[in-house]
Amino acid sequence: MNYYIITGASKGLGEAIVKEMFMQENCIIYLSRSSNSELEELAKTNNVQLFYQSCDLTKIEEIEETVNKVFTKIDLVQAEKLTLINNAGMIEPIKQVGDAAANEIISNVQVNLLAPILLTEFFLKQLKSFNGQAVVVNITSGAANKSYSGWSTYCSTKAGLNMFTRTAGQEQGAQGNKRVIIGFSPGVMDTDMQGMIRTAGEEDFASLPMFKEYHEKGMLRKPSFVAKILVNLINSPLENGRVYDIKEFL
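That's the Benzil reductase ((S)-benzoin forming) sequence above. Prediction below.
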């Protein structure tokens, strides 16, 4: 049995990843603030084990308890491989430094950086006696490597997530175990996040015309397309600590 734990799976890329993993030998546990009735109906139709765990990643003090609850649904004796996909993310605030609200900045850092770090920490702690393979995938962004005016917090958290991925992967590789930690940058996708970006004011986000053009010219990738590439990647040999970019597979 292969187990997959996916955050932010109520919509967008997370939802598409869950659908791509609908195979009977998989058990999928998705974490989000709200459940997804479409996913649950599809799971019943395809006779796939799908579990929902309520989780608000801005409440970082609850993350350890959430991971403990997730592992009550996992049989480590029967498990062959466990995969954690830290997919949840937020773009807000799209504001110039000096104009953003403190609570928005804090929430962004909690969801984009602190949550995946803590989820990875508690995930690995649960696997001390597990002899099978374990993979952590951190969904990152090209914004980790390029500054966008108005995205100071988003760019910074994704850059931090990349460094965490590289460092944690280096540690696991040095231990010579079956734990692999990677990053994956999916590029621009047709998701709610992109819709939110297009509602920003150009005074806050200087690159707004470019992102509107992506939408108008049909340049946004479908989440289902990205999910297929990611799932294929996860099931192939992986380089510990590497941050993969979807452009490598196009």
